[in-house]
Amino acid sequence: MTLYLGIDAGSVATKLVLLSDNAEVVASAYVHVHGKPVAALQQGLKQIANHVPQHATVRAVGATGSGRQLAAAVVGADVIKNEITSQAVAALHYAPEAQTVIEIGGQDSKIIILRNGMVTDFGMNTVCAAGTGSFLEQQAQRLNVNVEDFGQRAVHSRNPVRIVGRCAVFAQSDMIQKQQAGYPTEDILYGLCQALVRNYMGNVALGKEILPPVVFQGGVALNRGIVRALEEALGVDVMVPPRCELMGATGAALLAQEESEEAEAKETEFNGFQASEAVYRTVCFECRACPAGCEVSQLYRDDQIVACWGGRCDLWEGQPDRQPGMAQARPTAPRGSGSK
Amino acid sequence: MNPTIRVTVIDDSQAEKCEGRCGLDLSRRETFISAAEALDRLFAGRIQLQYHELSDPQVGASYPDIAQKVATGSLALPLLLVNGKVRISGYFDIDLMQRVIQTEMEIEEP
Q1: What's the pTM?
Q2: Which of A9, A197, B75, B105 maximizes the CB count within 10 A of its CB?
Q3: Which CATH superfamily is domain A2-89+247-276 in?
Q4: CB-based contacts of A77: which residues, under 8 Å, 6+ apart?
Q5: Do domains A2-89+247-276 and A96-240 have the same CATH topology?
Q6: Cα–Cα distance between A194 and A228 in angstroms, integer?
């Protein structure tokens, strides 16, 4: 059996998906980062390793997400792609006719405009918390509602209350006011869903040509209240693919599969699941070889430099063990994390 | 030699702002300089960062389409354009700028 591993190394969670060669999910993992990206990745690898069928081999690995360089270096990735491409590839796999992809995660949101299967426009938001899943999570806590029950309860709302969605700070005080005024929790919950959608539409989606079919993915797509609010705002049905929270990783695995099929003879860079047992640490320094002063990162595995990135020229490429030398190392604050 | 990437920020420092004050205010000279330095470091001098003040009538005349969309509420300020394409409408910080520029580079220069 041939398998493809996809990794989405985000700032809040690391997602891993193992796909079969007909793109079925064989195993998956969702691990909170808690400021330790390498440890989270290793934990995810361990979880996945337990579900690998006997005699199965990983043919290729893809990495995406804001921490993709680090993840690729730890695991050994064949493909490293940005989040927009990975999310788009996964969406098109489930909905080949998709023209709009809405992705809302814990800490960021994106919109991808597709035409004839190609990315023609995109937008991102990581700054305004009122347009991300963390906003819902915080308000759910304040309302003493399990975030898993949030959507289920929100869809039972009959008279949603209007909550300002322009800013998370002010939305919270507005919500508290509504809570104190005695509005039913279901109506407040759905009011929060509408506030998040208004924020999304007035921020990341503003000025974008949203055409159906619309695919909605990311962890927030699991919330049925948000799906309903989005459908109301757009006036069209919204498709939520299976395993919507793992779409970035799925896209990365599909890209890895595509590349390995195109280059059949090429061996995978995958370091194997034993990468979950090694000790890693990252060191950053400013390269002084030229005035550009690139911030270069070196990844050590068991005291050996195994990868190097961040330089904008090829000075460090292919020579990860090169010492700063001519490029007077000036260590910056340590980044990433050692583990074990 | 890799081509220069034009990063343009359009904002109206006189306009009403979100009360949260999230994101960068590049109308402030010191913020603009530190953002330009950070992007220069991250992208090795490939970034040409510009700030345009929409309250200046000349700027409005140079970007009539954008000025109209802002006026009608179809675009929120500040705007970030990468090589002339609107990539962020609303608040952003250096991290988001970096992610968007990186993505643009990967899509345009595969």
Answers
A1: 0.83
A2: A9
A3: ATPase, nucleotide binding domain (3.30.420.40)
A4: A7, A61, A62, A63, A68, A71, A256, A269, A270
A5: yes
A6: 9
Name which residue leads in pLDDT, A215 or A161: A215
Question: How far does the CA of residue A202 sit from the closest CA of chain B (Å)?
Answer: 7
Nearest CA in chain B to A204: B89
CATH of span B5-108: 3.40.30.10
B22 close to A (CB below 8 A):
yes
Do residues B42 and B98 make contact, with C-beta atoms less than 8 angstroms apart? yes
Beta carbons of A340 and A279 less than 8 angstroms apart:
yes
This model of the complex carries an ipTM of: 0.76
Interface check for B1 against chain A (CB to CB < 8 A): the answer is: no
CATH number for the domain running over A280-327 = 2.20.25
Is the Cβ of B45 closer than 8 Å to some Cβ of chain A?
A: yes
Min distance A124 CA to chain B CA atoms (Å): 6
Considering A129-138, A153-162, B58-67, the range whose residues carry the highest mean pLDDT is: A153-162
CATH class of the domain whose range is A96-240: alpha beta
